[in-house]
Amino acid sequence: MTVPFVRTAPSPTGYLHIGNARSILFNWLFARRHGGRFLLRYDDTDKARSKPEFAEAIAEDLAWLGVVPDASIKQSERLGLYDEAAATLRAAGRLYPCYESADELDRRRKRQLARGLPPVYDRAALKLTAADRAALEASGRRPHWRFQLDWEEIGWADLVRGPSHVDCASLSDPVVVREDGTYPYTLPSVVDDVDMGITHVIRGEDHVTNTAVQIQIIQALGAAVPVFGHHNLLTTASGEGLSKRLGHLSLRGLRESGVEALAVAALSVLVGSSDAVRPVSSLDELAGLVDLAHVSRAPAKFDEHELEALSARTLHHFEFAAVAERLRALGIPASEPFWLAVRGNLDRLSGAGVWWRVVEGPIEPLVVDKAFAAAAAALLPPEPFDQTSWKSWTQAVAAATGTKGKALFMPLRQALTGRDHGPELAALLPLIGREKALKRLAGETA
Ligand code: GLU
Question: Model pTM?
Answer without folding.
Answer: 0.93
